[in-house]
Design brief:
single chain; alpha+beta; 2 helices; 5 strands; five-stranded mixed beta sheet; about 90 residues; globular
């Protein structure tokens, strides 16, 4: 039997999940407030995780082209700073 971890508890279903590559080329998926996130070997795995964690809402996933570093302490840059020339909605 395969064990499956339940999704993280969310304060808001509308929270953005940011995905992109870090400075080492790994894929990062992280909720905008740092509530959940992870490192992945492929974009497909980052997307799969983001969809699982956000309750399958692709409209709340944003892929960014600049480097994004996983921050386990929830200190991502304010969302407005992330949406410069490199913003690209996934959905």
């Amino acid at each position: 039997m395969k064990l499956v971890e339940p999704p993280s508890i969310h304060k808001s279903a509308a929270a953005l999940v940011l995905i992109g590559r870090n400075s080492r080329g790994q894929w990062v998926a992280q909720e905008q407030n740092g509530l959940y996130g992870g490192l992945f070997v492929s974009r497909a795995e980052a997307m799969k995780y983001a969809l699982f964690e956000n309750g399958h809402h692709p409209e709340t996933i944003v892929e960014i082209s600049r480097a994004i570093e996983l921050d386990a302490e929830g200190r991502l840059a304010p969302v407005g700073m992330l949406f410069g020339a490199g913003k690209r909605p996934v959905a």
